[in-house]
Design goal:
Length: 196
């Protein structure tokens, strides 16, 4: 009987030590999103009022979304017209940065408007619904904005005229916690920029 008590206590002690130390978790990989200083999420050099801003110098590497010349301007130094392209908001599927074919006509309208006004520039703001971690949503919002930037470049718009920002889940269009709200929050918004 003493051997049984001893082995029971030994098993209990082993179980408690496992619970106390916990499981070792591998940290999540850091997602490269382009931009200055490597463009890593969480890097304070890329944060602007809680948003990741991709307006650095240099160019994105081969195979990255949003390739081409990076903008060399700060969108905050321009007059911002949020109403010009309000009807052209592009919506995304859950956990996706792929632009749906149903959204392509909106990008064509934006590209056409910008090609007719050489002084105008564009800011694309990527947004997500509330599901997922803050860091993941910030990265997904940036990938969405870069996907729209690349689509506009494919339509002939000079990508150096287009800056991107990610707000992740911070600026919901609908703060409700429903499927309908989440669909409205997974979006790119387009801000027309004119010199001050």
């Amino acid at each position: 009987m003493n051997a049984f008590k001893f082995s029971s206590l030994l098993a209990l002690g082993a179980a408690l030590s496992l619970v106390a130390t916990g499981c070792k978790h591998k940290p999540p990989p850091i997602t490269h999103i382009g931009g200055p200083n490597g463009g890593l999420t969480g890097n304070n050099d890329n944060l602007n009022n809680g948003a990741i801003l991709n307006n650095g110098s240099g160019s994105t590497g081969a195979g990255e979304v949003g390739g081409g010349n990076l903008p060399n301007f700060n969108p905050d130094d321009f007059n911002q017209d949020r109403n010009a392209f309000a009807a052209d908001t592009v919506y995304f599927d859950y956990d996706s940065s792929s632009i749906k074919s149903s959204e392509q006509s909106k990008l064509s309208a934006i590209a056409s408007a910008l090609q007719s006004d050489a002084s105008a520039k564009l800011l694309i703001e990527g947004n997500c619904d509330e599901r997922g971690t803050e860091e993941y949503n910030r990265s997904l919002g940036e990938r969405r904005a870069l996907a729209a930037r690349e689509a506009l470049a494919n339509q002939g718009l000079d990508s150096s005229r287009v800056a991107t920002r990610s707000y992740g889940e911070d600026r919901p269009a609908d703060p409700s916690h429903t499927q309908g709200a989440w669909e409205k929050n997974r979006r790119d918004e387009f801000v027309l920029l004119h010199p001050k």
